[in-house]
Amino acid sequence: MSVAVKISESALTASESPSRDQDKPVVSVRSLSVEFPRLSGAPTVAVRDLDLDIRPQEVVGLVGESGAGKTTLARSLLGLPPSPGHITAGRFVFDDKDIFGLSAEGIRQVRGRDISMVVSNPRDELNPLKPVGEQIATVARVHLGLSRREARQRAFDILKAVQIPDPERRMKALPHELSGGMAQRIVIAIALVCSPRFIVSDDATSGLDVTVQAQILQLLKELILKRDSSLLFITRDIGVAAHFCDRTAIMFKGEIMEIGGRDSLFLTPRHPYTIGLMSAFCHNDRLRQVWSTQNEQIEVPAGHGGCPYADRCPNASQTCLDQRPELKQVAEGHYVRCHYEVAR
Ligand SMILES: Nc1ncnc2c1ncn2[C@@H]1O[C@H](COP(=O)(O)OP(=O)(O)OP(=O)(O)O)[C@@H](O)[C@H]1O
């Protein structure tokens, strides 16, 4: 059975805001698959035939448990799938450029300047021996061709923008002299210093205090609106996604199981996995009831070619084992990959 499920061009582009419907996506991912080879047996498919569009000024959340493929997707979009993974299929068009078609040097030029990534472990990202101001300024000099003085000014401005207290002094600090939250802001400052049009945040704010996290999210949103950028916001926290993202995609085993605008997705979640995530998060009795109501008890054999969620799903039926579900529209801008309604 073919596992490739194609969806219409409009499926993932739809936003709930009518004015945005005319906007052209700045990020357009089509049929992306990424695999990790294994010593024996079939490779691990970390991202499977994934489509995603993001428009200017849009914040799209990507939520899923550990191992869902979020980081693999994020790093693949920067042309750096985690080793030994490799992109086996798909296109990524960013600002009319076919990113996967660029040379290594071409991708390097785009990365950091037009597309940047913020990760959750700032200590690994920063050079421990170099003052943080210099690290930010270097990125601006390399990518924007600024003079030393201009780059330094730009580094100072971005430190102020990410609300680093006493930025003049912090410019000279080494990473170990900063708190974790401050080091995280430095990494965000590096990602933003060239005003990229596309930012990928991979769990970048989860280690921060709740209040600092709220400030940083607010700041990210303001910068995205001001600079007409787009943000792919990866998180395991569905509550943060509900609060912060215009649309959210729920990912499981390398596939998007549900995607929708904030109101539609979070007020009327349709996929059993989304409902499970939400009921765990918000202790909602109604959701719990939906989650715990079993339609059919069935044996789920390993290696079946059906729904990737079947072995965890309280509603799995024979249809779910026989057919891989397509992403289908259930409301405006809201798509679900589930046989549930037809199987019932
Ligand atoms: N370097 C690697 N070598 C082999 N398999 C890998 C590697 N990195 C990831 N994988 C596999 O790819 C799949 C997706 O992993 P990935 O790290 O992208 O998930 P994730 O959703 O980002 O998880 P987390 O939230 O824990 O970071 C998993 O099955 C994982 O085991």
TrEMBL record:
<dbReference type="GO" id="GO:0005524">
    <property type="term" value="F:ATP binding"/>
</dbReference>
<feature type="region of interest" description="Disordered">
    <location>
        <begin position="1"/>
        <end position="26"/>
    </location>
</feature>
<dbReference type="Pfam" id="PF08352">
    <property type="entry name" value="oligo_HPY"/>
</dbReference>
<dbReference type="GO" id="GO:0055085">
    <property type="term" value="P:transmembrane transport"/>
</dbReference>
<dbReference type="InterPro" id="IPR027417">
    <property type="entry name" value="P-loop_NTPase"/>
</dbReference>
<keyword id="KW-1278">Translocase</keyword>
<keyword id="KW-0067">ATP-binding</keyword>
<dbReference type="GO" id="GO:0015833">
    <property type="term" value="P:peptide transport"/>
</dbReference>
<dbReference type="InterPro" id="IPR003593">
    <property type="entry name" value="AAA+_ATPase"/>
</dbReference>
<keyword id="KW-1003">Cell membrane</keyword>
<dbReference type="Pfam" id="PF00005">
    <property type="entry name" value="ABC_tran"/>
</dbReference>
<keyword id="KW-0813">Transport</keyword>
<dbReference type="InterPro" id="IPR017871">
    <property type="entry name" value="ABC_transporter-like_CS"/>
</dbReference>
<keyword id="KW-0997">Cell inner membrane</keyword>
<dbReference type="InterPro" id="IPR003439">
    <property type="entry name" value="ABC_transporter-like_ATP-bd"/>
</dbReference>
<dbReference type="GO" id="GO:0016887">
    <property type="term" value="F:ATP hydrolysis activity"/>
</dbReference>
<keyword id="KW-0547">Nucleotide-binding</keyword>
<comment type="similarity">
    <text>Belongs to the ABC transporter superfamily.</text>
</comment>
<feature type="domain" description="ABC transporter">
    <location>
        <begin position="29"/>
        <end position="278"/>
    </location>
</feature>
<dbReference type="InterPro" id="IPR050388">
    <property type="entry name" value="ABC_Ni/Peptide_Import"/>
</dbReference>
<protein>
    <submittedName>
        <fullName>Oligopeptide/dipeptide ABC transporter ATPase</fullName>
    </submittedName>
</protein>
<keyword id="KW-0472">Membrane</keyword>
<dbReference type="GO" id="GO:0005886">
    <property type="term" value="C:plasma membrane"/>
</dbReference>
<dbReference type="InterPro" id="IPR013563">
    <property type="entry name" value="Oligopep_ABC_C"/>
</dbReference>
